[in-house]
Amino acid sequence: MYNRREFLRDCSSATAGIFFVGCGLADSALGSFQAGSGGKRRQVVVGGRRVRTVDVHCHVTIPDAWELIQGDPQAINVQVGQTDPNTPKGPQLDPRNVKNRLAEMDEQGIDVQAVGINPFWYRTDPDLARRIIQLQNERIAELCAAYPDRFVGLATVALQHPDLAAEQLEEAVKKLGLRGAMIGGSVNGEELSAPKFHPFWAKAEELATLVFIHPQGFPDGQRRFQGNGTLGNVIGNPLETTVALSHLIFEGTLDRFPGLQICAAHGGGFLASYIGRSDHCVNFNGNFPANCKPVQKLPSEYLKQLYFDSIVFTAEGLRHLAAEAGAGQIVLGTDYPYGMGDPAAVDHILRTPGLSNAERRAMLGGTAAKLLRIGLQPGKQ
Are strands 95-96 and 19-21 parallel, antiparallel or unpaired? Predict the structure, then answer.
């Protein structure tokens, strides 16, 4: 893993190329890594105890990775973050330097962020995917080495090549000190529960490392999502997660790999909101038994072995998610810096009625700190 001296040495010869997605000015890591944000950090206190808050859902982008795919036929329809592929450094990206992000974290009461990248490389061949991901993971590791008390990293992996993805995950965790991986909700139309992905899931279970599932829309619904309401995001993203998790349950992936630590974005989509219907399916004695085969537990019981970020926006939504999955399965998430995120995520948890102080502390950072091994040496369990 890079230490701060090695990082600064590397920066002296070349721009490190780490950018945060946000609403400020573009700046390179060389000019951005400062001793601190310069502002006063908000102290979050619950029941008289200071809480270290951990945001598991936020984004960073590595513009250098675009240079690897420009002009390559595989780059057709490839996007970096949520940008136009023809202008990856244009206004849609709106990068923010580290100093600005730290100031915003301090204002929001976020002590630590787990930063990751939405996959854009799932259509690339093994060689190109290897080069993109090596660069991205090294850059994320450099950021975390420069600010070990503020950032931990989620690796990128070439999930379209599962054996390679397993190797990349192991290298990222053991050599670079990253704390897990961020993956999409499907891979080129294939479900995450498909047997071809078992090598990746086996490695994630072996490493006891977090896998954060982040959707990228629901392509099968694009025709019906047209029109007002940004339905591709508002409905498509949580739907993608709902379908992915449902397959992991019903296809037996969570039975085959019971030690997996999976966290789902946006409160896990719609899964917890109507999990009783999934239970009813496996209990149904009528016309559908061939299409709804029982798994080892009721579908609702699998919610207790999954984790969900807190981005459900309402107190009732958070209360319901806690009632169905358990408060200990919910972790703070902001989706920083995108417009569909929740910049008031800390206050959302603090102000939701009916939660105990212990539950609030767990949601705000206690559970995430365990999942991300914050406070432990990288690579140690």
Answer: antiparallel
